[in-house]
Fold this protein.
Amino acid sequence: MLRTILVGMLIIISYVFQTTFSMKMSFGVAAPNMIMILVCSYALLRGKKEGLLVGFFSGLLIDLFFGYYEVVGINAFLYMMIGYVVGIFHDIWYLQDILIPVSVVAVCEFAYNFIYYIITFLIRNKLDVVHYIKTIFVPEIVYTVFLTVFIYRIFMFLNKKLEEFEMRGKEEVD
Amino acid sequence: MKKPGKFTIPTKYILTFLSVLCAGFVLLTMINSNIARPIREAAAKVILPVQDGMNHLGGWFSDKADTLKELADLQKENDKLKAENDELRMQNAILSQWEPELKRLRELLELSDVYSDYPKVAARVIGKEPGNWFSIFTIDKGAKDGLEVGMNVISDGGLVGSVSYVGENYSKITAIINDDANVSAKFSSTSDVCIVHGDLKEYDSKMLKVSDISISANVKEGDMLLTSHISDKYVSGILIGYVSGIEDDGNKLTKSAWVTPIVDFSNLEEVLVITQMKETGKE
């Protein structure tokens, strides 16, 4: 229960951070993608089921406010798939290594942006994908990866504390 | 990790169910985007207060950062503004001589003051589209304050864009630099009509592309671009920007140009929404 509330708050905070600070921090063209960091980190730490749920609700939030032509569901689906696929690796990898979340976020950022480019730009005959990779993909990935290094550690710490708390709660019940 | 004795739904069922839900949402909202309205309003009730708090925090931080940065630039800017001020004062003196004459001629022609004083509502920009693909902003005024879809938005004396969605307490504005935005414009000097296109690629150099200028139009760099009188979306006479480059299209019919917008889109904080809609004659 506590976890659900906390995760809900994290989703809202990430979303608000991203929408607010992406206009305040104008030191570059691109803004980092906090929601991607949240979804990837959470899926890595907790597995595919929770990963896909967090992805779905984060994406839904984006869709509700900034859906492409008010269409709801595209971001929800994309982030859900990211949460699910990343969550598969939860059981496989050793998660203390910071390189893992960093590379996962980088790959997911690229995949997400590429699909979003196809849905919103390529369809309108904007073909210069190389240009967009240079000006949108790369700066966004660099910023996001940079932030991941710090934020992932925070999430890992939170998760550890929560797991301890849940264990304690269970012992009391037993 | 399965807890014994507790029923859990398998992940693949959740995935399938939510995927179908997404597809359903996409289809429904494609047909009619108003279907999502109740959910959107409910979400806004939670998000907007948080966003408001965050905005104050962000504003405080960027103020602190700005004071440090700006001190160095202020002197330079002050000098520049002084020079500009002198120039403007002189221009103003000349123009104000013409004002009585203009007024008299207008009265003679029974033309109303077309450009002056549209009714406006001030609003604060509270968020931007989370990705880097579009230039869509949210502002803190909505249907409650009398906003409607299609109203024009200005800032710093220049055109920002138009309202594209109105919620109860917030609205979305689509900027003129948004990829796929088009504005019908005219040159202030010659009244030649053209189209200003928002394009993500062009905007990397902080410029907008202008097309469909007649080859015979006598326009040059530095000319002012205003919203045109034939636009069915924008009220006429709002400044868009200054022309900074003209090019022949090579088809002996049209020219293209680039325009640098007046508004600094990376630093939008307060905007004015013009609450008067363009009268287009259709209901």
